[in-house]
Amino acid sequence: MNKKQSIPIKPLSTDRILEKVRGEGLTEKGLIALHHNAVRLHALDVVEAVEIKLWAEFPRAAKKLLGDRKPAAAAPLEAVHAAGASESLHAGEPG
């Protein structure tokens, strides 16, 4: 019997993983490894949290890993920012 098969592994709960991602202490390599594992296991909430953290703390690594794709949480913020910019451009125009 293979040793890996005989040792039961208790997986961390998603909540504990999310707390760890949102907290401090994970390195760039740690976040990237966690992202790969979360994608492999289809843990979408962990994937999203890791992508947000990567874009916030390690934008170069995020761009290398994800390309120009931003996390879903950034889309509404960009839309609000774009709307505010267009309003400020049109504020001086007569209506």
Polypeptide structure, described:
With 95 residues, the chain is an all-alpha fold. The protein has one domain (11-90). 69% of the residues lie in helices and 0% in strands. The chain has 6 helices and no strands. It is globular and about 40 Å long.
Structure at a glance:
This protein is an all-alpha fold and about 100 residues long. The chain is built from 6 helices and no strands.
Keywords:
95 residues; mainly alpha; 6 helices
Give the topology.
Layout: H1 3-6, H2 14-22, H3 28-41, H4 44-57, H5 59-66, H6 74-90
Helix pairs in contact: 2-4, 3-4, 4-5
What is the count of structural domains? 1
Query: How would you characterize the largest beta sheet?
Result: none
Amount of beta strand? under 5%
* Distance N to C terminus: 79 Å
Report the mean per-residue pLDDT as an integer: 76
What shape does the CA trace take?
globular
N-to-C series of helices and strands:
HHHHHH
Q: How many DSSP-defined strands?
A: 0
Helix percentage: 55-70%
Which blocks of ≥5 consecutive residues have pLDDT under 50? none
| Helix and strand composition category | mainly alpha
What would you report as the Rg, rounded to the nearest angstrom?
A: 19 Å
The number of helical elements comes to 6
